[in-house]
């Protein structure tokens, strides 16, 4: 009996030692963000509302890693978005982890290989050059890409995240970093029932000596979408996306610029996209700056334009913002924006419907962000 007890004790110690060597960790994190909004939405339409995620999307997630030895780690991240004002899931109420859900391996010398729903290389390339950090609710860059526009309904847009994907991210090599993703077809039911084709996305960035530069290329294979006002399913065209991004820091000022060109393949004769003329190319340009005025105060400025080729359809605009941190985790912010739709353009900030073309949009926001 003494031998058995001694053996069991030794086995327990061995298991404890093995667990200590693995050094795994899991972190709960998140953001709670709410704001009050004034919107002048064309003509004489004015509204006041409470919304969520104007500075940083409200969300919570779990991320972790396990040290496998020899510089190799197992890593994962699952992250959901929600609306503080009503408690609902953000964007897609059928997806628990709408923002991210991936697992993979990371090596300090060879890079990271991950699988699941994750941010695209194109997103990582352009993110450092948007003063409003690609925010899905109030960034003018997001507004330009997510615009509901008759002329570009069949032209696919850069979604920022992709499901069913495999992505490789290289280590930083003398300031250069490579991103490569391939994603398989996926189907969603919100905001409209839609099937996307396979996607290839490649990105390369350089950062050093105050300079940031990035290039990205994405190709989305054809898909389909069912839009209630159309009598039949809309064929989404195979679309190529070309993105360039530049940033340069001078003291407290970070100058930022990005440009994207979205080029669909020709619609087949007789297809829904061809019949309604919904497959035009368009470009998005943004020029701005982020100013660290004080350790607690940040100012963001952006001028932008969305321009549809082959149509009188363009939207120039400007947006400014101020963030004031009162602690390491809590901040107040304000935003003010203006955009003018010309011709048939119907662009506004995400979540805002525009019922009439050739109108102006005016936005004013005050909000609060808390991180945990």
Automatic annotation (TrEMBL):
Superkingdom of origin organism: Bacteria
GO molecular function annotations of the record: porin activity
Entry's localization field: Cell outer membrane
One of the GO biological process terms: monoatomic ion transport
Pfam families (alphabetical): Porin_4
Bilayer topology term: Multi-pass membrane protein
Signal peptide (UniProt feature, chain positions): 1-22
GO cellular component terms, A-Z: cell outer membrane; pore complex
Keyword Transmembrane: yes
Record keywords: Cell outer membrane, Ion transport, Membrane, Porin, Signal, Transmembrane, Transmembrane beta strand, Transport
Domain Porin: 10-343
SUPFAM superfamilies xref list: Porins
InterPro entries given in the database record: Gram-neg_bact_OMP, Gram_neg_porin_domain, Porin_dom_sf, Porin_Neis
UniProt entry tagged with the keyword Transport: yes
Assembly mode: Homotrimer.
Protein name: Porin
Organism expressing this protein natively: Paraburkholderia acidisoli
